[in-house]
Amino acid sequence: MSSKGSVVLAYSGGLDTSCILVWLKEQGYDVIAYLANTGQKEDFQEPGAKNVFIEDVSREFVEEFIWPAIRSSTLYEDRYLLGTSLARPCIACKQVEVAQREGAKYVYHGTMGKGNDQVRFELTCYSLFKGHNDLMEYSKQRGIPIPATPKNPWNMDENLMHISYEAGILENPKNQAPPGLYTKTQDQAKAPNIPDILEIEFRKGVSMKVTNIKDSATLQTALELFMYLNKVAGKHGVGTVIVENRFIGMKSRGIHGAPAGTILYHAHLDTKAFTVDREVHKIKQSLGLKFTELVYTGFCPECEFVRHCITKSQERVEGKVQVSVLKGQVYIPGRESPLSLYNEELVSMNVQGDYEPIDATGFININSLNKVTTK
Amino acid sequence: MSSKGSVVLAYSGGLDTSCILVWLKEQGYDVIAYLANTGQKEDFQEPGAKNVFIEDVSREFVEEFIWPAIRSSTLYEDRYLLGTSLARPCIACKQVEVAQREGAKYVYHGTMGKGNDQVRFELTCYSLFKGHNDLMEYSKQRGIPIPATPKNPWNMDENLMHISYEAGILENPKNQAPPGLYTKTQDQAKAPNIPDILEIEFRKGVSMKVTNIKDSATLQTALELFMYLNKVAGKHGVGTVIVENRFIGMKSRGIHGAPAGTILYHAHLDTKAFTVDREVHKIKQSLGLKFTELVYTGFCPECEFVRHCITKSQERVEGKVQVSVLKGQVYIPGRESPLSLYNEELVSMNVQGDYEPIDATGFININSLNKVTTK
Amino acid sequence: MSSKGSVVLAYSGGLDTSCILVWLKEQGYDVIAYLANTGQKEDFQEPGAKNVFIEDVSREFVEEFIWPAIRSSTLYEDRYLLGTSLARPCIACKQVEVAQREGAKYVYHGTMGKGNDQVRFELTCYSLFKGHNDLMEYSKQRGIPIPATPKNPWNMDENLMHISYEAGILENPKNQAPPGLYTKTQDQAKAPNIPDILEIEFRKGVSMKVTNIKDSATLQTALELFMYLNKVAGKHGVGTVIVENRFIGMKSRGIHGAPAGTILYHAHLDTKAFTVDREVHKIKQSLGLKFTELVYTGFCPECEFVRHCITKSQERVEGKVQVSVLKGQVYIPGRESPLSLYNEELVSMNVQGDYEPIDATGFININSLNKVTTK
Amino acid sequence: MSSKGSVVLAYSGGLDTSCILVWLKEQGYDVIAYLANTGQKEDFQEPGAKNVFIEDVSREFVEEFIWPAIRSSTLYEDRYLLGTSLARPCIACKQVEVAQREGAKYVYHGTMGKGNDQVRFELTCYSLFKGHNDLMEYSKQRGIPIPATPKNPWNMDENLMHISYEAGILENPKNQAPPGLYTKTQDQAKAPNIPDILEIEFRKGVSMKVTNIKDSATLQTALELFMYLNKVAGKHGVGTVIVENRFIGMKSRGIHGAPAGTILYHAHLDTKAFTVDREVHKIKQSLGLKFTELVYTGFCPECEFVRHCITKSQERVEGKVQVSVLKGQVYIPGRESPLSLYNEELVSMNVQGDYEPIDATGFININSLNKVTTK
């Protein structure tokens, strides 16, 4: 049978893409399996595709996708750092490069809000399999190995930013997570009683350097420092949350871990509060809500726009924060910044000049002019 | 000298109000000291005022001021639960009642955005004292006892929701909190290794009942359950944050503790995510940002309005969450709700009907129509 | 052939629904044609359906759908009063009543964001006809009369709020509207040179009474006053705009006329600015943007929520405005309100008390504390 | 008496600054009168100051202050184009340059949210005069000429963007504007019955070129085209609105005219709707609301930030619009753009490919998943 053309398949090693790979070949496509490594720990079985591209995109993932999320303090529905959502567009961009290089006719990937054909194609595949059980059936028939083995009755999604466990016994929101579920973060009860104290340096809202006060370990590249923070945070059980995920196609409940992300979220917040004008911060918070929503649903023009605005708001986010990591908690005992707004304020409170108590009278009077309660 | 009339002074027992009390009497006012107990632990020295009203307003504080804050997930600059700001209007309202009852000509209080004269009056007082040192001087001359003694070189602000430590040695953001600073919350390192598991029930976004799974302790009134949560959270070291405070007249750095507030913040978030439509939630988040800002700066018409809107958004926030409290962390291992959106979704993923995979094609295609990046 | 069950079809008299009606019967459905009159001027040909329900829903349309839009100052992309979008949910609600009464198995309507089956059904029909030409073809074969005759080479959508002209020769954005296109509004050049002066009364943001100063004509019910405003506005050429419509399935360019809506939009704006606290107004503006977007895309939970919030913001919107209508323009020469914020302010500027110039000093100083440009 | 130093006074020729000038000299200051010409038509009497600087800042005013307002569609409370507010910071910036050049110790100006001392100084002056009558009294005593003569019983504020009439007989909101009030715009009734048709070209949201179709008059510099639009708009009676102004120190009611601004507001809106992604536009609308509020209250860090974001949103706002100006109305009969989103859409509606009707099914189904009304 003559080939219908070649398709670049974003191969995850998971059940879904394993089945789709086989199915695509059955349909007469030449499949180029593309496996982007964003930091997941997996030993991949030979997908049996025409060509296999395995590529480490960790550095790009941290610099181009994680940093913007930290800068905008993305916290979906106030809890979820969006580790899964952030990896998707990163993989997709890389995959499109491969397709162009290989002259592939189709691209199969998992992101949304991109061009039409590849996505329609993707979902046509999906529509063949009605739910999880159907996939299991198909894989049994074709002898496709099933990653989610009996001893791990749930799915995992892992990358540098994030690990999540979903489905299986976790589906019922009343079920608790079984012991030994977490591979990335230590159980708080078993975590050390002595904190690690880190010094994290930011410039323009991006973390440039991490130093461990105890042993002076110092890391200066994005990827290295992020991986180091994962290690320290994991050791102290930082960053695990349990959330409902209420979006199409995602499982209904997830246990999410984002060790390094959680430390950086807090360290960045503190530097921001210390250096950014309060009013600018307020506007940036609204843009951050929008950005979070957009990352969650997929990158698109407004996302580019919002990302640009948030970057602009970070110009003054510069300084060193001390971060204490202990028993799943992240504290900021101290900080300093050449751009601190705080020193000026300190002064303005103690010596006359900038500010006099009487000023507050006017401030209050004018704010209370013509106030009429709507009660 | 004939009296200039009587003034109701919101007496805190602190240095400021102690000095102002004396100063007011020197100016020829009859001072009625009003001391609203919002849950602070203090033994008050006789303020030497004409009349002293000490009133316990804890219940009102929880029901009328703390509950709305929990409902709107107020978290000032993503970190501060606004424990101090919430108490101010509560005290002011009560005090105005006293003034009306006593026919007082003036009210002295600390809230903003209210009528003009009492506030102008208030700040005229303040303007007599230039900063902290000036107050110390005045109090020495008049033999006014100084609450902030050498052994506690910082100021404290305490109420049911909140305890904060500010000023003194804490002013320098590089200084860490001295050991033994915290009176309300246990040090995580010393906290128990076994969690307390609570079940918290919400109706219309308000917590109605708390049960401790271990010993079946059950609490059903707002005040009781809030005090109980303070106890449990304190024991496990929950709710302490260190923040910069960048607002007029407040000290420059504060260490804030809100034990019960922190548990309820998380428990409410979870119930909300579980029961409220995602789009309603998004709009409510923006209103919550506004509400937080307004509480921080003072109550006013728009605050009444926003509070009303947020209350409306909470009609479906109903359910039971399990809350695990351990080593300063709050987890939500499980939850259930008669109004859950999640069961419907679960179904929609597995059996045909509500939702079919092919639908996602259209969803994606239409969302990606005419997308043009602004890059 | 036995019936597949009956379907309530929202019959518009237009080409689309005429074709679908025939097609449905060919498919073996009993069709109940439901024609909701929202104020369009049409003499309807017998649709040849099993039953025909023609119902005048004008009053409900004005009170339940137009009033909320006026209260929230809906102006899609700053120009379009959403006359078409507002009518859709009104018709749908009525139609569902009919279906329930008649025990119909299916409902065919044009709104979005409602239940799934009727909509899927609807669009399955649509998918039979690829574009306008295909419909023409089908209608010729079946002898279905075509409303858009050669002498009117465009489509019209009309209701009490709104008339729009789309498609045909109007599709090209460079083409101007042909003379004699407008049936509802007079050409400004030919409009009278003497204005009509109306007095419009509002309570809670809703217009309760309209009086024409010249002839003392007075109207007091929602429907009557709205129809009267259409007449006056039309005579003076008020309310025509030309906009691009960039939404799925709608034609690419529309000429929209909303005579009464335009007068009420301005009259309401003025009363609002006169009576609502500035800060409340700001928050309400953001909610209004959201409401506009939601009406445009379809009613849903968040729309109910936002509508509720906006209603709350209108409690003080009460007063009488004089409105001058001339040559396509709406002026507000004067207004008065028992709840005006303006008199208080006027006073506060002239006599001492509320406000003293020195207050502004403090207001400015405090607002400018710690301002650091982000340039 | 030795000089207390020199002060640069932003001299307007109006009553206020005339009085303050005299008062300042009485206080022993050397006064440098600075008169920034932003397009007002006035013959200025010799202010009797030490030095007088008269500077034409019209070009800067248009390019640096009016253009950003047009790009963000600033419309304060949905009606007022902010012509007065925009001129203030422009004058202030220029004035600071003069002060630096002349080594003046003080600057007197009318903007807010700037440094503290000059503003405090300014308002200390104001606080000498309680209201308008007091100023009149003072000016009589000192023989200061009063601009608002009996035949013009109101104040005027004029610049290139804007003319407004306030105070005097206009204070009462029930009083209508007297005939012959308007000097910049023709009465609609008397305006020509033949429209002028203009073609306005935009690039990045800024108007680059204006051509009059009738006589091919062409203007290509910011200042020239803006002045030309004032002329055409004025001739056709475009741009007059009557609004309440509810801000400190401003008169209570104003009649505002912004002829050119009104044409550009509509022309820009149309180009924007034609070229900007709908979602980007929505976010930009919220930022625009914020920008409007900030311009109204004074420039500050967040204003710089928001202005930057809005500029970013304008990158695609490019095209030619035809504008018809007639009887106070501005129509956009046609437009074209190389970056139009509209052509792509047109295509997508008629030929298969981008979009298929069936897609809408999924779009609707997914949007309506788990929708639960909050009613």
TrEMBL record, chains A, B, C, D:
<feature type="domain" description="Arginosuccinate synthase-like N-terminal">
    <location>
        <begin position="7"/>
        <end position="128"/>
    </location>
</feature>
<keyword id="KW-0963">Cytoplasm</keyword>
<keyword id="KW-0547">Nucleotide-binding</keyword>
<dbReference type="GO" id="GO:0005829">
    <property type="term" value="C:cytosol"/>
</dbReference>
<dbReference type="InterPro" id="IPR024074">
    <property type="entry name" value="AS_cat/multimer_dom_body"/>
</dbReference>
<dbReference type="InterPro" id="IPR018223">
    <property type="entry name" value="Arginosuc_synth_CS"/>
</dbReference>
<comment type="pathway">
    <text>Nitrogen metabolism; urea cycle; (N(omega)-L-arginino)succinate from L-aspartate and L-citrulline: step 1/1.</text>
</comment>
<comment type="pathway">
    <text>Amino-acid biosynthesis; L-arginine biosynthesis; L-arginine from L-ornithine and carbamoyl phosphate: step 2/3.</text>
</comment>
<feature type="domain" description="Arginosuccinate synthase C-terminal">
    <location>
        <begin position="154"/>
        <end position="371"/>
    </location>
</feature>
<dbReference type="InterPro" id="IPR014729">
    <property type="entry name" value="Rossmann-like_a/b/a_fold"/>
</dbReference>
<dbReference type="InterPro" id="IPR001518">
    <property type="entry name" value="Arginosuc_synth"/>
</dbReference>
<dbReference type="GO" id="GO:0000053">
    <property type="term" value="P:argininosuccinate metabolic process"/>
</dbReference>
<keyword id="KW-0067">ATP-binding</keyword>
<keyword id="KW-0835">Urea cycle</keyword>
<dbReference type="InterPro" id="IPR048267">
    <property type="entry name" value="Arginosuc_syn_N"/>
</dbReference>
<dbReference type="GO" id="GO:0004055">
    <property type="term" value="F:argininosuccinate synthase activity"/>
</dbReference>
<dbReference type="InterPro" id="IPR023434">
    <property type="entry name" value="Arginosuc_synth_type_1_subfam"/>
</dbReference>
<dbReference type="Pfam" id="PF20979">
    <property type="entry name" value="Arginosuc_syn_C"/>
</dbReference>
<dbReference type="GO" id="GO:0006526">
    <property type="term" value="P:L-arginine biosynthetic process"/>
</dbReference>
<keyword id="KW-0436">Ligase</keyword>
<keyword id="KW-0597">Phosphoprotein</keyword>
<dbReference type="GO" id="GO:0005524">
    <property type="term" value="F:ATP binding"/>
</dbReference>
<keyword id="KW-0055">Arginine biosynthesis</keyword>
<dbReference type="GO" id="GO:0000050">
    <property type="term" value="P:urea cycle"/>
</dbReference>
<dbReference type="Pfam" id="PF00764">
    <property type="entry name" value="Arginosuc_synth"/>
</dbReference>
<protein>
    <recommendedName>
        <fullName>Argininosuccinate synthase</fullName>
        <ecNumber>6.3.4.5</ecNumber>
    </recommendedName>
</protein>
<keyword id="KW-0028">Amino-acid biosynthesis</keyword>
<dbReference type="InterPro" id="IPR048268">
    <property type="entry name" value="Arginosuc_syn_C"/>
</dbReference>
